Q: What sequence folds into this?
């Protein structure tokens, strides 16, 4: 799968950037989606922020995998 991503032009640097971006977006969601209404709205924003934040390790692992691929000749 990683070879297919690499052949499509998906780079490790893009993956690292997406991982970093997901952390920033996660923090933004955490603070902006909390809501001022019920506790249920606040909990939804917190859970969604955590969900987006969990993407970061996935993107970093994909980037690491692409970096470690041997160049095919």
A:
């Amino acid at each position: 799968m990683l070879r297919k991503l690499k052949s499509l032009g998906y780079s490790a640097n893009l993956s690292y950037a997406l991982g970093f971006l997901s952390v920033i977006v996660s923090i933004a969601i955490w603070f902006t989606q909390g809501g001022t209404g019920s506790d249920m709205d606040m909990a939804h924003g917190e859970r969604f922020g955590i969900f987006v934040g969990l993407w970061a390790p996935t993107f970093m692992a994909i980037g690491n995998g692409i970096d470690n691929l041997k160049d095919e000749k």
User: Anything to note?
Assistant: The helical segments are 2-7, 12-32, 39-53, 55-68. Residues 15-68 form one domain. The CA atoms of residues 1 and 66 lie 10 Å apart. The mean pLDDT is 85.
